[in-house]
Specification:
Distance between the termini of chain B: 46 Å
Mean pLDDT of chain B: 92
Shape of chain B: globular
CATH topology of chain B: Alpha-Beta Plaits
Largest sheet of chain B: 5 strands, antiparallel
Helix content of chain A: 40-55%
Number of helices of chain B: 3
Helix content of chain B: 25-40%
Number of strands of chain A: 9
Oligomer: heterodimer
Number of domains of chain A: 1
Order of helices and strands of chain B: EHEEHEEH
Low-confidence stretches of chain B: none
Distance between the termini of chain A: 34 Å
CATH architecture of chain B: 2-Layer Sandwich
Strand content of chain A: 15-25%
Structural class of chain B: alpha+beta
Strand order of the largest sheet of chain B: 2-3-1-5-4
CATH architecture of chain A: Alpha-Beta Barrel
CATH class of chain A: Alpha Beta
CATH topology of chain A: TIM Barrel
Number of helices of chain A: 10
CATH class of chain B: Alpha Beta
Largest sheet of chain A: 7 strands, parallel
């Protein structure tokens, strides 16, 4: 089974572990690929990171992708214009307007933890429908659950369950990620799968969100990075 | 003293055995692992939730050299147990990660698999 973890922070961004440590641990846990998520700091920095990632990928024989996480609407618009320069565009969910903008943009691949630091789930049925239409996957972030406790954890679990229920209803893709910032926070795929099942996902649906949905994103990314691609829905034939 | 008669198979819990390996900074002792798992289970699932799982960490099957062990539970609560194992990320100052090796209905088949992996 080809498992992927598409939200991992290494020492490139806010992470504690080196990309090599992360990749080695992912290999031990049985992943086929992963995505190192960074924040945009200019083209030169991006090229440097890409080279390092390619080196690590060759050494560990793991598929490694470069993802950029947008933190506000201004950044999101800027990244949408240079979509070809990196693999995966993630939007860091928190603010309701930002969540809305993210699901409206077909350039975005993943909306990460939409319920982050919120009292509500951060998404409603309209936004979920838009996410389904624009093929934006909604993330279940394991680190959010891992690092919280007691009341906060129960609120987070409730909000995630709400989002999962809506995603199932409108057939919006769900992706389960570890959100790890250290190689100690990378989790076994079956642990992530079981956590998905606790949110009323069927076993095959939970499995899909670790295998098939990331694979679909990879295919879409390949298309977006090809020269024939002009913009969402438009390409040269 | 008379021994209590055992339940017929049809009335017994349908058991599942989860074989796991601990990846840690330093080797883990069984007692630390047991208390860590129980505390996290009780925190996350609650006393009532844990009672429904029939969870048991099997001391006889803990291998200190390989850091491999087996947890037994009933067939309905595998997901709860496996998901909760992911929440055990620290035992004292020692950071740990669980690798789930296999889930099976008998200990015999788990061990067979382990032997196959070595050869």
């Amino acid at each position: 089974m080809s498992y992927y973890d598409f939200h991992v922070h290494s020492a490139f961004s806010e992470g504690e572990s080196t990309p090599e440590e992360m990749a080695n641990r992912a290999k031990i846990l049985g992943y086929k690929g992963m995505c190192f998520v960074v924040y945009y700091k200019g083209k030169e920095n991006l090229e440097k990171i890409r080279k390092e990632i390619e080196d690590v990928s060759k050494r560990t024989k793991l598929e490694i992708f470069l993802g950029i996480e947008a933190r506000n609407i201004h950044e999101l618009n800027k990244l949408a214009k240079i979509r070809r320069e990196f693999d995966i565009l993630l939007a860091r969910g928190h603010d309701i307007n930002f969540n809305r903008k993210s699901v409206e943009m077909p350039e975005v691949d993943i909306l990460t933890h939409p319920e982050f630091e919120r009292k509500d789930s951060g998404l409603n049925h309209i936004m979920i429908k838009l996410a389904a239409k624009n093929n934006v996957a909604i993330e279940i972030n394991f680190r959010e659950i891992l690092l919280s406790s007691k009341t906060t954890r129960s609120f987070i679990l409730h909000n995630i369950a709400n989002n999962v229920m809506l995603c199932k209803k409108y057939k919006t893709p769900i992706i389960i990620c570890s959100g790890a910032i250290s190689h100690w926070q990378l989790k076994d795929p079956s642990i992530l799968q079981s956590m998905g099942c606790l949110f009323e996902l069927e076993l095959n649906e939970a499995k899909k969100s670790l295998t098939e949905i990331p694979s679909r994103i990879i295919e879409a990314v390949k298309e977006k990075r090809s020269r024939k691609w002009i913009m969402p829905g438009v390409k040269e034939i | 003293m008379n021994k209590m008669k055992t339940l017929p198979p049809s009335l017994r819990d349908r058991k599942r055995y989860i074989s796991f390996q601990i990846i840690s900074e330093e080797p883990i002792e069984y007692s630390d692992l047991e208390s860590g798992i129980w505390n996290t289970m009780l925190d996350f699932l609650g006393e009532y939730g844990v009672s429904k799982t029939s969870m048991w960490l099997m001391k006889d099957n803990w291998n200190n050299d390989d850091q491999k062990g087996i947890i037994s539970c009933n067939h309905k609560s595998i997901k709860d147990i496996v998901a909760t194992l992911g929440l055990v990320d620290r035992l004292g100052d020692n950071r740990i990660t669980f690798k789930i090796l296999k889930i099976s209905g008998t200990i015999k088949s788990l061990k067979k698999r382990q032997v196959q992996n070595y050869t």
